[in-house]
Amino acid sequence: MVELKIKEYDSSLKDKWDEFVLLSSINGTFLQTKNFLDYHNGRFDDCSLFIYKGSNTIVAVVPACTLYDEGRRVFSSHCGSTFGGIVIAEEFYDIEHVEAMIDTLEKYLYDNGYKEVVLKCTSDIFSRHNTNLLYYFLFQKGYTPYDELSCYVDFKNYNEDIISNFSASRRRGYKHSLRNDLRFAQLSEDSEVEKFYDVLCGNLQKFNAEPVHSLAELLEFKNERLADIVRFYGVFNGEDIVAGSMVFLFGNAVFHTQYLAADQECLQLYPMNFLDANLIETAYKSGFKFCSFGTSTREHGKVLNKKLAEFKEGFGTEFGVNKTYVKHL
What we know:
This protein is of the alpha+beta class. It folds into two domains: 5-142, Aminopeptidase (3-Layer(aba) Sandwich), CATH 3.40.630.30; 152-321, Aminopeptidase. It is 31% helix and 30% strand. The protein has helices at residues 14-24, 34-37, 95-111, 132-140, 168-178, 190-205, 215-225, 271-285, 306-313, and strands spanning 5-8, 49-53, 57-62, 64-69, 72-77, 87-88, 116-120, 144-154, 182-186, 230-237, 240-250, 254-262, 290-295, 297-298, 303-304, 318-328. A hairpin with a 3-residue loop joins strand 2 (49-53) and strand 3. The longest helix has 17 residues, at 95-111.
């Protein structure tokens, strides 16, 4: 078997890490770059790893953090990213090397006192190549898979007349929204993003939840760290923002809605139907392959928010799964 070795990440290797993720890997995105993950600024106990062949050839990286479960050390895909897992070099995506990556990683984790490993893999629409070989070896080596259900529009299978793809109820809702004085626009001013954030916080209150990101972090994304990657969109009723979304742009492939929210006092205007229709149209006209609406599950995919999933389904979406693999060492 091919011999690989592990090297722990440190900040002096940031440029090398990010270059590998964005230019050499089959399943890396900006979400696994240190440019993105570093915004957490010490919030997590980072234990990210390089996997090398020889002295200086990177075959994979593993963005990760250490968690503790009743005193047990857990090696987890980085909690600051939606997904990550093992990010693999295109050159070494083959049976011999992928198997060796997993074996080498497991030995390192076992030798360093980890009792469990959690790998949240990059889903297919965000990857430049399917990672079925990785999934197979994780299965073969005793990892337990958890699937989260996601919804996305595949424009290859979508009619150019956007509304014709909707279910009858989504079409009715969209037509109702057109009776109101609603306007869709990209949010360019910080003050507009702040209004959207207020709507988002109000929307999450019904679930006793808060946004993952603070307003300051969203503005830092917009103006500095992710200026070419993040977009904000809003639905206006007069001067008021009644719905909105934060969108991540994954190259020219995926237009991903990271946040979707509506003012709970204005639902009679059908702002979400209006918002989603315009987001899909924006993605289509901008040449993206997919428009992603994210997952509708929780508790490792065991619980489905059926109402939310069916709402997304009504826009003519297809279904995907985000795979997480867990193993006790």
